[in-house]
Amino acid sequence: MSSRRCVSTNARGLSDGLPPSSGDVTETASEPEAEDDGEMVHFSHPEHRLARFDFPYLFMCMGCKEYGAGKRFMCQACGFQLHEFCALAPPSLHDHPFHPKHPHLLFFAKPAGGFLRCKCDICGKAVKGFSFRCASCGFDMHPCCAAMAARMELPAAHEHPLVLAPADGGGETSLVCQVCRRAIRRSGSGSSGNHHHHHHLVYQCLPCGYCLHARCAKDMVNGLYAHGIVPPERRSALAAAARVTVNALFGVIGGLIEGIGEGIGEALFENIGRSRRSFR
């Protein structure tokens, strides 16, 4: 069963803090922030204080169960870590640009129950922990995705501001995401009534046509892109594809080498090793 942390009508944005309560439901509008020394007590880890750090390496946020790099709140006693925006998430969001249909999104500490695994409506990945959910229609998004805006400056990716294109922007398929290099699919008018159009959300530069998936823009918000880190799930997918290719290649060459002189076989394998290195 989901646990609602708080119903508040005065949340001031994602930079605000959550009430440090260990109960499942907290009916309060108080939003304590990190103290002057950068430390805080968080409801998800009440046994130790969390301190602010900025490290360039990868970590798994224990709040939303998504990856991050850079800024975080961390427990020095046991290594528990939270994204900065997860640690400081407000009890509710109002009039978020990603969900104009309904005005209120509430913070939930646990994913929605039920047979079907809930997915984030922005990046399409499973919601395994903290999220903001619409009580009216089931719209759900990670705190990291909620930290994005309808218009963003992402100098690490592009020199011009990027704006979120409408989800129903027609059936154009010629656009390619400049980060993952995959074709951008748009929902168009023929899409079903389901509200899960996560893979159609796209940021575009109107003057020059540069575009990227919201899912890829997310890696610029959570610190992965800035620190040159490929998300592990994307890395493992690439590695699996590479393994299949290399295994097939070695299978063919292995068959050819049988019965060929040992010296020629060694030379072939040496060349393969060199060409594999050149792909890196």
From TrEMBL:
Residues 1-38 are annotated as: Disordered. It comes from Urochloa decumbens. Pfam families: C1_2. Residues 1-12 have a biased composition (Polar residues). InterPro entries: C1-like_sf, DC1. SUPFAM superfamilies: Cysteine-rich domain (SSF57889). Keywords: Repeat. This is DC1 domain-containing protein. It comes from the Eukaryota. Coiled coil: none annotated. The lineage of its organism: Eukaryota, Viridiplantae, Streptophyta, Embryophyta, Tracheophyta. Residues 43-87, 100-146 form the DC1 domain.
